[in-house]
Amino acid sequence: MLIQNAWAQNAGGGDSFLSFLPLIAIFVIFYLVLIRPQNKKQKEHQEMINALEIGNEVVTAGGILGKIQEMNENYVHLEISENVTIKTQRQTISSLLPKGTIKKG
Questions:
Q1: In this structure, what CATH number is given to the domain that contains residue 80?
Q2: Which of 2, 34, 92, 105 has the maximal Cβ count within 10 Å?
Q3: Residues 93 and 57 reside in one and the same domain
Q4: How confident is the model at residue 1 (pLDDT cuts 50, 70, 90)?
């Protein structure tokens, strides 16, 4: 009778790994679907921010279109209209526009 109890206790040890397998699978799927694409998008945005130059036409996160007049490490001066310049953080630039998108007049 003692031998049967010993075998029964040892047999249950292999099931603990199988019970964690769905949790591990969910974490892997979560990483592949959410975390990895977000990191890739963040890296692309940072590369775009680092490549900004004076004269580029950009769109801010608030939807303001402007042409870069001055810039430093943290801020960008955008000309949004003739003789109207605003100062914004570089990180608020959401996209780079093709040259000639913003037309005068």
A1: 2.30.30
A2: 92
A3: yes
A4: low
**What are 26-47's pLDDT values in tens digits?**
999 999 999 999 999 999 999 9
Quick one: 8 and 35 in the same domain? yes
Domain-located, residue 102:
no
Q: Domain count of the chain?
A: 2
The 3-state DSSP class for residue 54 equals coil
| Unique residue bearing structure tokens 């939807």 | 63
Q: How far apart, in whole angstroms, are the C-alpha atoms of residue 96 and residue 104?
A: 18
Q: Residue 33: which domain range?
A: 2-48
Helix (H, G, I), strand (E, B), or coil: what is residue 57? strand
| Mean pLDDT value of segment 50-54 | 95
pTM: 0.70
- Report which of residues 4 and 93 the model is more confident about: 93
- Three-state secondary-structure class, residue 59: strand
